[in-house]
């Protein structure tokens, strides 16, 4: 049953036909399966982490743009606050205020007030580089003194309109190719009674520096800043880049709020994005702040505390997230290299151990193949025995059927002893028994018949 030639043949058959697995192939398959499983795990983890991380980083980049707008808004508010403070300091100079109060009471003449006030105002103006001129009004809003650029504006109706408007800051405008603004400050005496008004003419050069400094570093290549204010029913933009355009026109952009189709522009604003820009500026001027998306542009808008202006920063979405995409690519590359390093480490450090495991697996495989071969042969032998058994049972069943026939009632002739079969034919006794049983006959003579047949030979 366990003869070596048969076992050898079975083993050869198993190795060549039915069981082709080898240690080398198992090793390769194990490495491939591990690589695929590790790759699937890393992709799943990377996707799960990156999707959340990427969205958070996108929001972080948007917040960075918003914080840039917030810092610019604070800087503009600080500049505005400082100019108001400068104007207030000029009004609080007691000697010239007292002289103005005397003038309002008719104690001194306008000529004497001007002779006293003009040098004092010029001295106050010289205390700040941003102050380009001062115009002093009395209690009835009549000009009583001026210096610097104020002398150029004493007959300008826009100054009187500014005084009557009640605003503390005017809109920017050009004087002698310099962009200036008017700052209004009330002159109040010790009893809290208004004695007049000072209009301080300040340069907005520092404001322009705040808006344009390090533009490439802060806002990027596609970044733009817009500072705007309402002028009647129109939205006007600060001339951030220059006082005058190449054609000599003032560099301002004016949009009719009731019809945004009419745009006069001297610096870059794309028409299809103007509506979103206008909307953000109007929100900022109403005191709101936040982030808005318009096509491929990201807009950060912020209100200003010290004025009714609105500030908007815009940047191309591609540039805003450019570093984010690069960082994510670096992370993906690092993860890929880590994946390769893990595979290389497994191949280098686990190969001996895997070899030993697979060697024992080969031995176990051979033993299993031998056992399978023996079992297959035993099964074949049992099948042959089972067939023989079935044949014997069939023969026995047939013989049993014949025996039952002979045990039945047999019609036999009383004279010649012939037997009649089921078909009605008469057969000799020995022929019938031979056909219906396993018995055979041999012929001879009994003693009585022998004497009758051969009387001389068998007599006593």
UniProtKB/TrEMBL annotation:
Keywords: Coiled coil, Membrane, Transmembrane, Transmembrane helix. Residues 361-395 form a coiled coil. The keyword Transmembrane helix applies. It comes from the Bacteria. The chain crosses the membrane at residues 30-54, 328-350. This is Double Cache domain-containing protein. It comes from Candidatus Wallbacteria bacterium HGW-Wallbacteria-1.
